[in-house]
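Progress note, project year one: complex with zinc ion.
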Amino acid sequence: MKEKLFEMHVHTSEVSTCAVLKAEEVMKKYSLAGYNGLVLTDHMNQRTFKDLSLTDWHDLVDYYLRGYRIMKSIKIPDFTVLLGMEITFNDYLNDYLVYGLEEDFLYNNSNLMEIDIREFRKLADKNNLMIFQAHPFRVDTVITEPYLLDGIEVYNGNSSHNSNNDIADLWAEKYGLRKISGSDFHHFWGMAPGGVKFEDEIKNNNDLIQALKHNRFKLK
Ligand SMILES: [Zn+2]
Ligand SMILES: [Zn+2]
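Model obtained:
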């Protein structure tokens, strides 16, 4: 069977203040570029919500899901959209990509940004989520103990930062962490340099988690 190419790190302007392209444009661009799907990883951080007067967690989640819901309302043949997030806890600037995310998990776990990676690891284990640290060697990050992670991004395609991908790759080798690749797509330029190729069909979160857990993928 033909491999399935997925983007693992992408933002939409409906939610991520730093992103330029709307959900619909993002989806069409990826489909045209030959991808079979994407995991939408909009930012779940204080900056995203700071200018909105959202006091209720439920309203915040509704806002967070806007890009995802637009994508879900558009049907493109052989193109799958899954919900993820790039979360930044309030303690450090580290960003973590979360896969296997369901809408209910977000609604049922308020104030997610106020916990830390240790607490989030426990929640992830209970809810069949996987955590991959995004660009773990940008200069504003701190080291996360490898046992708290399912893997790390060893390729981050965002050209506005130096992600020190070479060091991330060495780190993953040293600690036996899974390696993933993401474009960290925000802008018109630098379209889709990243992604992973899955051996199997990925139609839902369960397919995605199984493929990641069992390392049934390689980097683009
Ligand atoms: Zn961003
Ligand atoms: Zn990002």
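The CA atoms of residues 12 and 26 lie 7 Å apart.
The chain has eight helices and eleven strands.
No further modelling is planned for this target in the current period.
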